[in-house]
User: What shape does this take?
Amino acid sequence: MRFYFVLLVLIFASLASFSQSKGTAYDFTVDLTRVVDDKVKVELTPPSLKQDEITFYLPKIIPGTYAVQDYGRFVSGFEVKDKKGNALPFEKIDTNAWRLKSAKKIAKISYWIEDSFDTELAGPTIFWPAGTNIEEGKNFVINPSGFFGYFEGMKQIPFQFNVIRDKAFYGSTGLIPEKTGEPLSLLKLETPQPEKRVDVFRADDFDLLADSPLMYAKGDTAIIKVGKTEVLIGSYSPNARISAKEIANSVREVLMAQKEYLGGDLPVDKYAFIFYFTDQPVMSYGALEHSYSSFYYMPETSIDRMNQNLRDFAAHEFFHIVTPLNIHSEEIGQFDFNDPKMSKHLWLYEGVTEYFAGNMQVKHGLISPEQYLNILRQKLVMSDGFKDDLPFTEFSKYVLEKYEDQFYNVYQKGAIIGMCLDINLRKLSDGKYGLQNLIADLSKKYGKDQSFQDDVLFAEIGALTYPEIETFLNTYVGGPTSLPLSSIFAEVGVNYTRELEEKEITLGFGNNNIAVAQYNNSPMLALQNCDRMNEQGKAIGFEDGDIIIKMNEVVLPPLGPEISGIIAQHKAALKEGEKVAYTVLRKDESDQYKEVRLEAVVQPVLISKRHVLEFDDAATPAQLKLRRGWLTAE
Assistant: This one.
């Protein structure tokens, strides 16, 4: 699962401060009530242009996805006209850029946008939460980078965009609208159409515009007050299997705990959780977090089957109101959407955020300390699949190029880096100062309007805290040395064993045996590498390509958030000496799937376990003191 970290943006405090003279702002209009061939039309009245020629861009990439998107490929029917409606010349110079001639004469630019959710266009696959959706009469997902563009050298002036919508539709977004539900006469359209309405939004610059997704559908919303912050939940569930009210009830406790974790005050006035649930088979799902909102693409299921998933997502996403909103480098503060330069500090933007998401839950009693140790262990196990000797700063700097395959480690080792920093800070301060304090101090030092320099951050942190912390960062984050896990865990009375062997009841297959296969247009749990299964798996008789459809007569659904819970329940029910049964789909000689029933006696097998963590019953008073500061609310 990939997550989206964001650039610096500043939401306007007063609409009155947005007053602009004519010609100094972009003015876009998108009509969601007119869908043609699964496309909608975008029109732009440009700001005053002084150049004879200028380039118009749609983004090639957006911050946080760490992959090329090429939003320009979804554009068709591109036209440029003067005040009299005459066509003006232009040249498409690459996928995302148009060179416009006679720029001073331009009065209108228009084009049609196709959505990414069901596109057949060639090009890079767009991560669902970064995509766009056009479902006439049902749902529209507007990630602005996929709809709107900017002129070369003119990203830092205001943008207005008008959304023409059906009067029954509602727009969920973190933006504060300038006007909502206005008649079409607002746009000086000739024919009155009472079934349509206009919403008007403004943004200081393209950074804020690109950072502000919207979703339009028939209204299903809920509001949570978290301190002084208004949190909007907007949901689209095609079969009404889950509601915004249910989501609000699920995440409310997490948000309240986060407020306390951040010291009682939040740095935003409004925040939006925007949920798009699909009833179509999914191979992946996830979320992108923004400065004032987060967008979720998830399989449609009931609240009880996704409750913990929602809470975990919310715990991570919401923390991005701190970093990088209030703490970010120049590379993020002045992000280049078509020729990006990456920061060295993904460990801070994503790693520390992921660490806080778990640490907050244990500190405020949402999970037990034992559950938290298991979360940390899973991150360590998953991190083993990545390059441990690759300096995290180098990986972060070149994640768009040679280290794209290392990205997911930011949520594994990145979070463990956060843990190590927290424990080290508490050790050096006799428990009085931890990572929460450091992030609060960095937020005060920099804030929304000031970027730090990538190369001096470690020194700045050392000056704010201790020289030993700067040394730690240079050695273990900026260098190739493995984290000193044994000594770090020992500080808080946790025994760490890198690897041990013990007997355990297993499912017969492990993570390296899991594959995905399509069956009846749905992604299903399949098996691979069966020659490397443990003795239990070999006794059952699994073969490569088997699709598991039943476990002890319990039918497995297509892959989705509920599958892990079903498998965990199945494993917990296994008892030594009893029989375990699987029903699989296996191809026969004619390449047709046939049901095959497999059985075996449950027997413990000797397995190797890595990164075993256990609380030390003989921990000293000093260790227990640090542990309390680490795992309990202060």
